[in-house]
From TrEMBL:
Species: Galactobacter valiniphilus
Transmembrane segments: none
Protein's recorded name: Serine hydrolase
Gene Ontology terms for molecular function: beta-lactamase activity
UniProt keywords, alphabetically: Hydrolase
């Protein structure tokens, strides 16, 4: 069966990655899969799991309005901080988190669920080196958690495989999380190689591919985790790239490596012929 190859990596970047065949869990390619990396917004997936659980089990109503604590008002990623009416429903706030990684909606939902509860979701699911740690902050000082979320390639790829298989808490909860992730507009990293319409890929799109994913970005990190299926198969993937301490911004070589892996994943799930890797 077709295997994937690792592209060259810039040695100044710490990578943790793993790509799985989503059907049988077989490892297609990996590199330092157990190395812990900062994962920026990727940990918001655990928040979405908790919100989905509460909706499915009736602890929250989808049309319940969120409240935004003043101490957790943030800007940057998202749309809610720019909206005139910020009293969204719980369901729509979760959609904003899935679609544009909305920081303000994230903080409102964390406050609604409780930070300790959300922090406990990853260990409850069996993950020891991956979690959401904190609210999103405009400034992260030394007395705060070191990162909003962290994780490894092995655990994050397993999370996406289990979500795709309906194994996270229940098939209904898994499907709800995947529905929110279907709206993700950030196809700038590994998913760029799938050539999908960034704003409209809920249904099967280019070459019959269906993508559900979550990304994270900081000035020293790029992360893309997802589940993508096509006419020839399905893959769960996680690629984290960190370069804290480097003397320059290394997003270009980080994203180049992600896209090279993405090209091979596209060939794997679509059955398209793949040109010989140039490395």
């Amino acid at each position: 069966m077709m295997s994937l190859q690792l592209p060259p990596f810039d040695p100044r970047i710490t990578f943790s990655l793993q790509v799985l065949d989503a059907a049988d869990g077989r490892v297609l390619v990996s590199h330092a899969p157990d190395t812990v990396c900062e994962t920026a917004s990727v940990g918001k997936v655990f928040l979405l799991i908790e919100v989905a659980r509460r909706l499915v089990e009736g602890e929250l109503a989808p049309d319940q309005r969120i409240e935004i604590p003043e101490e957790h008002r943030v800007a940057d990623s998202g749309l809610l901080y720019r909206m005139l009416d910020q009293r969204l429903t719980v369901w729509d706030a979760a959609l904003l988190v899935g679609a544009v990684s909305d920081n303000l909606a994230t903080n409102a939902l964390i406050a609604l669920c409780g930070l300790e509860v959300v922090q406990g979701m990853a260990p409850f699911l069996g993950y020891t080196d991956t979690s959401l740690l904190d609210y999103i902050r405009d400034e992260r000082t030394e007395d705060m958690p070191w990162t909003p979320s962290f994780g490894t390639g092995s655990e994050l790829s397993d999370l996406m495989r289990r979500l795709g298989a309906g194994e996270i808490l229940s098939p209904e909860i898994s499907a709800q999380v995947m529905e929110w992730l279907a709206a993700d507009t950030d196809t700038s990293m590994l998913a760029d190689s799938f050539l999908l319409d960034p704003l409209a890929h809920v249904e099967p799109e280019y070459q019959g591919m269906v993508l559900r994913h979550k990304t994270g970005s900081t000035s020293v990190a790029r992360i893309d985790v997802g589940h993508v299926s096509g006419p020839a198969g399905a893959v769960a993937y996680a690629v984290a790239a960190n370069w804290k301490g480097a003397s320059e911004d290394l997003r270009a070589p980080a994203v180049d490596a992600m896209r090279a892996i993405g090209e091979q994943i596209r060939a794997y799930v679509t059955g398209a012929e793949r040109a010989e890797a140039p490395w």
